[in-house]
Amino acid sequence: MQPDILCSLDQAETLNRQGFxxxxxxxxxxxxxxxxxxxxxxxxxxxxxYATGSWDEAxxxxxxxxxxxxxxxxxxxNLALALQExxxxxxxxxxxxxxxxxxxxxxNLYYNRGVLLQRLERMEPARHAFExxxxxxxxxxxxxxxxxxxxxxxxxxxxxxxxxxxxxHLDSDNVALIGNLAIVYGKxxxxxxxxxxxxxxxxxxxxxxxxxxxGSTANCLSELWMVDDAIACFDLAIASSNHLFQKRAxxxxxxxxxxYSANWSAAAIAAEHKNWGQQYFEPVAMKHFANxxxxxxxxxxxxxxxxxxxxxxxFFLQPVLAAHDPAQVxxxxxxxxxxxxxxxxxxxxxxxxxxxxxxxxxxxSVQELLLQDQIxxxxxxxxxxxxxxxxxxAGRAAPLQVSWIxxxxxxxxxxxxxxxxxxxxxxxxxxxxxxxxxxxxxxDSFLCYRPGADFPAVGSLPCQTNGxxxxxxxxxxxxxxxxxxxxxxxILAKVPDSHLVFRARGxxxxxxxxxxxxxxxRHQVAPERISVLGHARSVVENLEGYHTIDIALDxxxxxxxxxxxxxxxxxxxxxxxxxxxxxxxxxxxxLHSVGLPELIGNSPEExxxxxxxxxxxxxxxxxxxxxxxxxxxxxxxxxxSTFTCxxxxxxxxxxxxxxxxxxx
Length: 664
Description:
The chain is 54% helix and 9% strand. The chain is built from 29 helices and 13 strands. The strands form two sheets. It has a seven-stranded parallel β-sheet with strand order 3-2-1-4-5-6-7, with helices on one face. The chain has a six-stranded parallel β-sheet with strand order 10-9-8-11-12-13, sandwiched between helices. Strand 2, helix 18 and strand 3 (354-357) form a beta-alpha-beta unit. The longest helix is centred in the last third of the chain and has 23 residues, at 640-662.
C-alpha cells in the first residue's frame, strides 16, 4: 500500500476516533477514488456510515468489504448488523451463518445473533445463541441479561431465575437484572421478594425513569393484600411520568385497582372514570362513516379483546359466538392476543366468525382495518383491564361502540355509546349516573355462561363425611378485603367447628400469621380451622377444589363472576351481599338467574345470617349439591340461544337508531 494512502488512513482513523465523522468519511472516499479495492478504507467508511445511521450505505460497503476478503468472518457480522438495522432480518441471519462457517465462533457473533432472534421472537434459537456465547465467556453480562429476558418470554421461570442470579453475581446493582428478577419472582408468586427487587431498582434509577417501575410496584403491592398502598403508588407513578400515553395507561390500571378497595364509594369510582376520559382525550369531531344505513340488513359486529385465549372472558363469549344468527349479524373477532393458545384456535376454527389478528397493529392500523371491514358495532370486552384498546374507542373507531363483559364498570369514555347489563346488576335509576355510556339492560342476565367439557363431576357433600361445614372462596384474593374477612370470621364463630378454605397465590406462612390469623383470633376462631390453597395450575384443578367446600362465600365489594358460576356448576351454593353498583351486584344477577335470590343479603348482618342458616340445613345443602348443576344448565344463564337472540335484538335496536339518525 502506498505510504500516502497509509498516512491518510491513519489520519481518517484519528478523526473518526475524535468524533469528526464527516471529515474521516471524506478522506476514506478520496482513498477509494484512487484505490477502489482498498479494504481498510472500505471497512472504515462502512463503520462510519453505520455509526452515523446511514444503514443503506453501510450495508453496501460492508458487502464490498466481504467480497474483498472472502475469508474474514467478522466482516459478515458487521454486514449482519447493518442489514438488521435495515429490517433485512433473514439476510442478516444468513450473514451470521456465513461468519460462523468461516470460523468466527465468537461471543460477538453468538450474542448479536441471539439479539436478532430475540427481536424476531424466535425464543428457542435465541436462547441457544446466548448459551453459546456464555459457553465461550461465562462473564458476558449482556448475554445473561438477554437470556433472562428470553426465559421470561418463554415462561421458563426457573431458567430466568438461574440467569438472573448468575448475572447479578457479576454485577449486583444491574438494573435490568434486578428488574427481571422482580418479574420472575412475581410470576412465581413470590411477591415479597418481588417487591424488594422493585424497591431496590427504584433506588438505582433516575427520577425520570421511575414511572413504569412504580406502576409495577403498585401491581406487586396489590398482590400482597396492600390495595390502598397500591393505589397510592399508582398516584406516584402517574405524577412521575412525563409522557401522556404512559400517564394514561397507568391511570387506566389505577381505575381497575380502585374496585378492590373497600374505601372507595361507587360514586367516587365513577367520578374517577369520568375524569380519566375527560383528562386524557379531546372531544371527537363528528365522523362520517360509509356504512350502508340499511336498518334491516345483517349487522357487522366486531368483538375486540386481548383475552381470546384461556381466560374467564371466553366462558361468556364462546356460547354467544356459537349461537349468533348469520342472517342477523356478521361476526368478526378482532384478536389482540399476544400469545395465542388452544382456546384461541378453537374460537377461530369452531365458530362462524371472520378472524382478524390485530395483536401487532397500532391503533391507527386497527382503525383502518375496521373501516375496510365496515364494522357497524364494535364491542369492547376489556374495559380498563390489561392490554385494552380504549384509546382506539376514544377516537371513535366505528359508528356504534359498545362495552360488554370483561370490566365491571363504565369506561369513562364519552365515545363509548352503550354498556350492556341487566336490571339486577344495574338497577334502573340507581347506577345510570355512574356511567358515561347509556345502559342497555338485557331481560334476564347480562351474562351467558357455558361450563367447559372437561368440568369434573359434582362430588358428595363434604360435611356429610367431615362432620363439619366448610365455607370457601376461590376468588382472586385481591377481592378479599379486611372487612369481608371479618365477616367470614364472624360466620365461623357462629358455626361450631366449621372451616374455611380460600385461595391466595403467594401467601406465605409468615404473612398469614401476621395479617390474616389475627382477624380470626379476634372472634376466637383458631387459625387451624383455615386452609389456604395456592394458585391452581389449571381450571380442572381449581374446580376439583370445590369437592372440599359446602358453601361458597362471595367477596365484597368486588363480587366474583366466573368463580360464582363455577361454584354453582360444582353444586356449591353461593352466599352474596348486594351493593350499590355493578361490581357489587354481579352475584345478585347470577343468583337471580339460577333462581336462588334467597341467598342474597342486603347488609353485612344478613350476609352472615344467610350463611349461618344455610350451614345448619344439611338436608338443603345435600339437595343443592345434587341439583345445582342441572339447575344452572336449565336457567337463562346457560340458555345461549335465547340470550344471543336478546343480544342481537339490542344490536338491531341501536343499529336502527343509528340508521335513522344518519339517513336524513
